[in-house]
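My current task is to audit a protein record that another person submitted. Alongside the sequence sits a line of tokens, each denoting a local backbone shape. Where you disagree with what is written, explain briefly why. This is what I was given:
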Amino acid sequence: MGSSLRWIFSYLIFATLLFANTGVQAENKLITLLRDLDQFTQEGNTEAKLQTLKKIVDQTESSNLSKSIHYANIAVGVAEKNQVDSVLSYWYGRLGHLCVQQGEQLLALEAFHKGLDYARDHNDQLGWWHLEIGNVYYSDNINLVKAESNYHTAIEEFSKDSTDENSEKGICVALNNIGMVHEKKGQQLSAINNYLKALEIRESLKNNEALLFHSYSILGSAYVKKNTDSSQYFFDLAKPLITNNSEKLDYNLRLAALNKSKKDYESAIRNLNSAEILGLKSNMLTELPQVYRLRAQIHLEQADYQSAAKYAKKGLNYTAKEHMLAASLPLLQQMVQISEKQQDFRKAFEYQQLYLNYEDSLSRENLKSAEINYELEENEKEVNHLKDDLNKVIELEHQLEDENKRQHEVLVGIEWGLGIALIMGGFLLWSAIQQRKQKKEITESHEEIMSSIKYAETIQKAIFPKRDYFDHVFKQHFIINRAKENLSGDFYYLKLTSKNILVALGDCTGHGVPGAMLSVLGISLLNETVRRDEVSTPGEVLDLLKYHMNSNFEDSENGDGMDLALVAIGRDTGIIQYSGSYISLHIMRNGELTTLKATKSSIGKTPVPTSIEFEDHTFQLEPGDRLYMFSDGFPDQFGTDGGRVRKFSRRRLLKVIQESADQPMVKQKQILLDALEEWKQNEEQTDDISVMGLQWK
């Protein structure tokens, strides 16, 4: 087999084994729900049908928004047809919000207007429906006049019951939204007045931390152009009220705008870096274009046109991905400015034309009528007619089968006795030939697969850093990397930067081919992440790795991912920065062991979603200090102890390391391997085993 074909074959094996099960469980779950839906439809069980539709919409919202909207539409039709008033309000709102996510503002307006009509009939939550409608008109500047009109109507409805705290909250939201409309119109003083009115009400409410944060942060932004001291005052009030990543991102983004106006570009970029990481980690992708637009503007003011173009283009990538037409316009304007500054007038003209096309598309979209008919009942009738026709066809087929059966009954009786001997003889002969053929094919396939796996093993080892690379960086060191099978899910990593030595040890889910594929992906993502000049600590690297691993396995329910220890050692200072996911860092100094504990959060999918951030640790190294990291393969190895089968254990491994710490590291490696073999004896290797030891100077 040629080298190129061998490489392709290895890659196909890897890719097939890694991704074969991706999304299968989710798809099976959806198929089960659709079968349930069909059953409840046939039974006429409306309540169960609506509950199943909710599960289907929940299941598809994150993976297929169009499908989610389709089934939400069906739910609305079912609830309307069967007059299930108890859920109509919910489904109108759910459908509207799904359409907003999809960028289908006109369909969202249709759903929210239906919700408003329902609310009028039941005199229920009128103010909130007007807020929803106003928000759609506000988005993408569809119609600021109608947006403000709906916000004022919302205030009127909320004011009818001013004793209700929820009504007061609604008035605050509407006042703030009116302020935002006035800001878009350039009416800054009027906007600030509305924000202050909302703040006055919010300060009188109980349990109002989230509401106050919003008021303080929006006032901080409003004062940026008027009075930077007032702006900073409100941001200082907002900071201690932050309770979640969404608020943290909003705060960093708004504060960066203040820093920029004060020409404090370093602080602005630091806040924008934090906002970007939060946006990626928490999947708040719609906020990223604003982050990149502000970053591009900073570089534009600094006359760093190459960096400005880089971030403006990143913003445009996200607006295209999220179908954010209006958000593309200021980024396209930036690209026109940047191209002109770079004296590339042809490119400036192209971006200007693109801007005009986008603006024209947006204007035409805003002029479309919002009167859309779904005709759900007619569709359902058509489906029922098709089912009736299908049943008739099936009945005719059954009749034909019965007739054919009667006609051939006599012939079958005659032919059976003569044909059975010939059939059995032929079958036995065919079976013998097939067995020989299959045995040959299996043998050849096995040899081919093993050859490819051997070649894949060579590829994987080539990705790992060379041992002599470690010799160049560390005076003494050792690495144990023993795969359970030919290929390993464990990996090690070394990279030099201008300031730091980056060392990592990873343990990926599984072993063999799947584990090896994950290790290759892990090394690739790690390389990509540490190249980013915005990432400053190992904890931030692990945060980004977790985001990217979740993105790669968003449909997986198997817990795919990895544990990782990442150490950054200052080349001149000897100061360690460390962060870990379940793999701790152990430091030996003069016979004393110090452990920097890992964060108990995996890099990848977990059964229970978590927002835990990876903790950074610092430590000042001294010459002669030794660093140790190991995966769980060594501690979890089974062996016999006093006649009982036990795991080697983390405590026993650290004891061996501590007792042999005065030995040269090459000898210490052999001591560890001897301890492993003595313990394991006749037991099979449980998992991939990796241990890394490094001595500082």
Summary: The first strand starts at residue 476 and ends at 482.
